[in-house]
Design a protein that fits this description.
- It is a single chain.
- With about 140 residues, the chain is of the alpha+beta class.
- The protein has one domain: Electron Transport, Fmn-binding Protein, Chain A (Pnp Oxidase, Chain A, Roll).
- Helices cover about 20% and strands about 45% of the residues.
- The chain has three helices and seven strands; from the N terminus they run αβββαββαββ.
- The longest helix has 12 residues.
- The relative contact order is 0.23.
């Protein structure tokens, strides 16, 4: 893994709030949706929320392979890895955002609130003309 490229990917990623998240649908086709990134520190682990029973939730129950993409002007960052649904109260409380209250009216204890933990396996990037790809060990 190239530490310089990882640092550049992390810097770019931390400046993003929104991204697209892709999973495989029931027929094996990629399906992308917009997500709001929450509490991300770097590209190795990414967290966001989805309601229990949503398409993302159902699809991740069948296949954990996923991808996150974020971009800005002429820069692009793609993360490929595995996603898992967290429904334990500790994870839900840790990642709770007050802005979620309109979606999950019972707060962090809402039974429809879940957290998606995405673990990156591979990074592809073209950021400010630095292009490359590397695996996360």
């Amino acid at each position: 893994m190239n530490q310089k490229m990882l640092a550049k990917a992390n810097e770019f990623f931390k400046a993003r709030q929104n991204a697209s998240f892709s999973v495989l649908d029931e027929k094996g086709y990629p399906s992308a949706s917009a997500i709001w990134l929450m509490g991300h520190g770097d590209v190795t682990e990414v967290f966001f929320s989805t309601p229990v029973g949503s398409n993302k939730y159902k699809r991740l129950q069948k296949c954990s392979k996923a991808s996150i993409n974020c971009y800005s002007d002429f820069s692009n960052l793609t993360l490929v890895g595995e996603a898992e649904v967290l429904t334990d109260q500790e994870s839900k409380a840790k990642h709770w955002q007050e802005m979620f209250i309109h979606i999950y009216p019972e707060g962090a204890a809402d039974p429809t609130y879940s957290v998606i933990k995405f673990t990156t396996k591979r990074v592809s990037m073209n950021i400010e003309e630095d292009e490359g790809a590397f695996d996360i060990a």
